[in-house]
Amino acid sequence: MPPRKKADFDAAPAVPTRQSSRIKAAAAAAPPPAPAPPVKKAPAKKAAAKKKEVEEEEEEGEEEEETKPKARSRAGSRAGSKPPSTTKAKAPARKPASKAAAKKTVEDVQEEDEEEEEPQPKSRSRAGSRAGSKPPSTTKPRATSKKPATKAAAKKTVDDIAEADEEDEDELEADADQETDAQPTGKRRSPKGYRARAKPNSDAKAKPKSDTKPKSTGKRARAVTPSDDEDEQQAKTASKKAKKAAAVDDDAMDEDDEPPAKMVSVLKRGAAPVDPESGKVSTHQVYANAEGVWDAMLNQTDIGANKNKFYVIQLLHPIDNESSCWLYTRWGRVGERGQSQLKGPWPPATAVSEFKKQFKAKAAVPWEQRVGMVAKKGKYFWLERDFGDEDKAEEPSKKGKGRKSEREATPIPDSSLDAEVQDLCRLIFNTALIDAHLSSMNYDANKLPLGKLSKNTILQGFSALKQLADVIKDPNGEVAKANGGQRAAIEHFSGVYYSIIPHAFGRNRPTPIGDERVLKAELDLVDALGDMEVASKLISSSTPRDESGAPMNPLDAKFRSLELTRMEPIARASAEFAALEAYVNNTHGATHHFRVGVRHIYRVERESETVAWKKAGFDRLGEGERMLLWHGSRTTNFAGILKQGLRIAPPEAPVTGYMFGKGVYFADMMSKSAGYCYMGLSGQTGLLLLCEVAVKPFYERYDAEYDADKGCKKANALATKGIGRTQPVNWKDAGEVLGNDALKGCHMPDGPCDNNADPKAYLQYNEYIVYNTAQIRARYLLMVDQK
Question: Which residues form the PARP catalytic domain (predicted)?
């Protein structure tokens, strides 16, 4: 029905409609139990208020198609429903007093424009049109949250709005994963607190514009949960207003979730790098004072809830002005850019207070107690990052543009290294290969860059895996029972581990670490992170200048950072090269279905190994008690291996993932060690060490023994030997064959291998494990190509 004319507002209430007459007639003819209720008459005061509302609508021209009289009449004419509320109490909420209205901000206007384009939750509009329910006012309630009713509310700005809570990202993740045509089942609070308009009766043929679902943008309304933090509750009423204001100062404040590029270029300035997604890299730097660096990376993984998210908090200030600080935050799913917000500016003291407040809300521990914190369910875990070398790395940049011009004007000298050594440096210091290996293990270096990875974080990762190993080994043990059973415990501790060591699973559910195979893969990752972290720091910290300040070739600078006593390529035509190549070919197992060719061989020596070897007296061992054995690892690990030697897993690591306990593993079969090189991730190229190892007497084992280190020590043996079914038959003096006097008395295989007649042999090939790194001296490094 058409809207009432202006003159009708002052008249007495209208006579009953045809619909109400039919109801009365039906009630008279039907049995007495359920007469239809008469339509309530609107009092004169309500009619006057409605008159005022219509006039306001005509003046402002709001609500467009969604406020059509036809839709209002349909919603209001249902049987038993109340007419739209027209009390005077709602008029001030719809339109504030003139003085308050004059203070309407630019953000309010922007918000109104966006809200008209925003899709309305269908469940809200449907709920409002049900028979017997009171339909919402036609257009007025929607504006109650947009326009403040008081002068104080009108002054509300972004500075009063706390950060949108992490649950917002979960809603966005769920919506991004599925474009659903189904209707929501419950009421959801729409963004900014506005109310959805009533949906027409279900028998109506035409649908209002608000029911047309637009293309998803990844940013939708979300339900409000009771667990939201207090500061986050405030953000729900005006989060879009906050994003608009933040976007004025930052081009990257509100971008859709997109996977970032593998390599993120980070400009280091000051105590820590500015988040590359902030848009402030070239103009701001992270604030630091006597208390520390005001930068935090948080992570949270909950496998049961499919949560795998990050939270960045930084205090940023203009490069030459530390008196004004902004609180920058960014949050989202690991592996994606997520969303961000910028608040401020404030004086440093206020900014620090806001930073601490935000950190505690997310991590549930005070900022001062972050070191050694234990991850709490439903909260974020702080990732400790090492900024120790940041200032040193920045020294050259402090000299300004003149320094850059000088570098550009100075030609890069040619490398003084042998061509074979240059090839090696290009391989082990290749950041693209590091990314490829990390990506294959799902590690997210964008959230915890290798150069900032602290030793403590690696140890915490080992500790989490140790708890998982206990649950896997003993499903009914105390650890499993204390966490709700084995399955719940595995999900819990897997989440703790992924919170410490960030993994990118995309939109997939994080993988529970529920068996020894997955556990071993994660142990390999954490172990490799230690070596890759060394490589990353060497890459970033190598200064291309010699002691006198003269320019150096970058490859020479990186090689110098390894601090090797010796690294010499061996001539391919030499007898030494031929003997080592024969060792490669003669020890290729029949079960290993790949072939390798030798590209380069280098003589290697590390001074610290020589000192430790002699100090322990291993240079005085008898004939044959030392052996020349293989050790393989990822190419990306070798910068760390050459820099600091082979290492043993720390006490924090579980023993379950190591067949013969925590030690350094060697083989007398080349292909056995080559399997640990993962050459497919390095362009079909791998690196193998040949080490002189003090091994005899042996502690011989036929099957796995996770605490073999204890048995070896008890037996007064130097190494554990896992006996294989295929092994070398004869041995020879390596010093004599290779023409290397330092290796005289050290044995290496002589000729091809054969089957072992011992019926108790269970392993396919021999393995040698030592539990003291002083028993190891690297002698040769081979670069091989997989065919």
Answer: 553-787
